[in-house]
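Let us begin with a simple case.
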Amino acid sequence: MPKVVCWAVLHDHHDDPPGSALALRFLGAVHRIVLQGQAPQLAACYPSAGGDSDCDAPWPRFHAVVQQQAAVLRELVHCPVQTNEAGRCAALLGGFVEVARRTGLPLRLLEVGAAAGLILRWDHYFYEAGHAGWGDPDSPVRISNVFGDVYPRLAVSTRIEERHGCDTSPIDPATDEGALTLQSYVWPDQMERFRRLTAAIRCCAPCARPCRPRQCGRLDRGGAGPRRFWRGNGGLSLHGVAILVECRPGALQARDGCRRAGRHL
């Protein structure tokens, strides 16, 4: 019976490519319904909705929701997975502060596959490493315990001159719809990630237009897309925040286009 219930939602997707993240699309769709308050019986098992992952009979509750919401889930499962993990900014911090330290130049950022642009706001978060820290100490986003015993030299200030992002399906994190989309693709029991994402959305909400990525297709063969961002600009041009998901159509072409563009910047 449970297999039949799930198959009623997924039967049109048996030919989806392996890299299309069907399982995450399906579970994210269910999570979305839970976060919208439309499945209180299952919300009792979802920590992201105030529940307890050790609740009684989670699978019967899950199957009941899938059966009751089958029509809605059939539509939602077509949506692409969109995640925007602010914790990844820790991996960028060291490179950015080192470039700023060595050059003294402002940074200009371009992110391809920016989703909601939360990583583009990396300088609005606070990072803790040992007894040192970097960023806004009043930021709602705090990233700590990720560097181990060796961490970047943080006694450096940076200045962001420009930041731009593009995505085939950009998300506006300042809207309820955008925030819900991002939250739905975080596993409901990973509360540290969920809270950090929610804080990053709150941090980004008051931003001006540059916080929101624009829509773009795949980059052309000559890399003209990235060059258009920087033509005529001085300072230090970085294409250091491009996170390309290889299962997306055109990802390899986009990567190669960025490399070619970098040689002409």
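The second case is a distinct protein. As before, the sequence precedes its structure tokens.
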Amino acid sequence: MRDDVARALATKALEVAQKAKSQQGLKGEKGDPGEIKVLNVAVPGEQGIQGIQGIQGIPGESIVGPKGDKGDKGDKGDKGDKGDQGTIGKDGAKGERGERGFQGLKGLDGPKGDIGPMPKHEKKGLMIRFEKEPGTWGEWIIMPTGGGGGGRDDKLTDRQAELVALAEFYKTRGANANKFVKTDGTNLVWADGDGVGTVTSITAGTGLSGGTITSSGTIAIDSTVTTNSGTQTLTNKWIQPRVFASTANSATPAINTDLYDMVVITAQSVAITSFTTNLTGTPVNGQKLWLSITGTTAIALTWGASFESSLATLPTTTVATNRLDIGLVWNVATTKWRCVAVA
């Protein structure tokens, strides 16, 4: 359809162009020939009058037809078949022999062989000696620890030789029962004897009585010395209390009455739910225990079965951030810590 319209428009445009084509003007008339006279000199004839130029034709109107639509792209053609492989050419002539190459790398070492049997030997710590022949031993040497390989540097020093000799001497103790060791100035030797001697003088030192003894006697502890179970009166002595300071902030404080006379609890922010749970120790009749509690606010106090009130009542809370002191004494009759003071 589009092609038919395009052809019709092109034909119409050609007709209009042909009608408008300019016409060529008429050719003018040829002039009369000039008069010819026979003279000795030739005289040219006059030039004829030039004809009138024709009227110029009207220029034709140029009409350009519309451009046609681009045609669709054609399909891609199929790929041609692969050609057959050519035949293999003949082998070329053998080349000349090349130069000798470099030597190849050394191959890996073969597996390590088994270790041979250990010769007969004796060891003492880092020292060792080997049997040269049956019943004959070589010198003691120190076994190398850094791969030294032996040699004179591995032989015993004088000090080490002395230690070896002492060890050898010690081996003979079984055959020398009830003997003692003495020296003859060069070597250690076993000597007979019962080890009994005579004391010529014993002087009693500070805190002891009964000296000086030159034959026989008794040394005793002086009466001015305090003993563990003796009945004695101490004068001008200060007994320093054993104090345990705790900031554990525990609801069940750990208190060992065998180790401490006073427990100071500070920065307590949680209520104490039981003083009995983690209470340990084996108190004696009349033993004293002092508790001091300081809270970050008013803290509730629960004592548990190991505590009892007297005329002084066990407190049930601290007051604000004030320090609370409780004096306790062990009541052997009730096996409880008895509150005797609150401040």
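The CA atoms of residues 185 and 203 lie 33 Å apart. Residues 243-342 form a domain with the Jelly Rolls fold (CATH 2.60.120).
Keep these points in mind for the review questions at the end of the chapter.
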